[in-house]
Amino acid sequence: MRCHYCDRTADVSVDKSGVRVGLCEEHFQERLDELADSEALSRLREQLDIDRA
After folding, report:
1. pLDDT value at position 18?
2. Domain segments of the chain as ranges
3. Would you tell me how many other CB atoms lie within 10 Å of the CB of residue 19?
4. pLDDT-derived band at 48, boundaries 50, 70, 90
5. Which end of the chain has fewer beta carbons closer than 10 Å to its terminal beta carbon, N or C?
6. Cα dihedral: 43, 46, 42, 40 (round 10)
7. Which residues pair with 23 in a beta bridge?
């Protein structure tokens, strides 16, 4: 499987409802960094009562 964003081999892949998406390490880390600062993740933390150590 190839990365969704580039032609490198995917290091991580996710399957949901039959749709598979792969990401190389670089693009996976970029997406994690974006999500770490997102409002959606902040709301999820509040809902789950998660505090960062």
Report:
1. 93
2. 12-48
3. 7
4. confident
5. C
6. -20
7. 12
Q: How are beta strands 12-16 and 19-23 bridged, if at all? A: antiparallel
Unique residue bearing structure tokens 């994690």? 32
Residue 52 has pLDDT above 70, yes or no: no
* Total count of residues recorded for the chain: 53
Q: Residue for token digits 């490198």?
A: 8
Nearest to 25 by CA among 39, 6, 51: 6
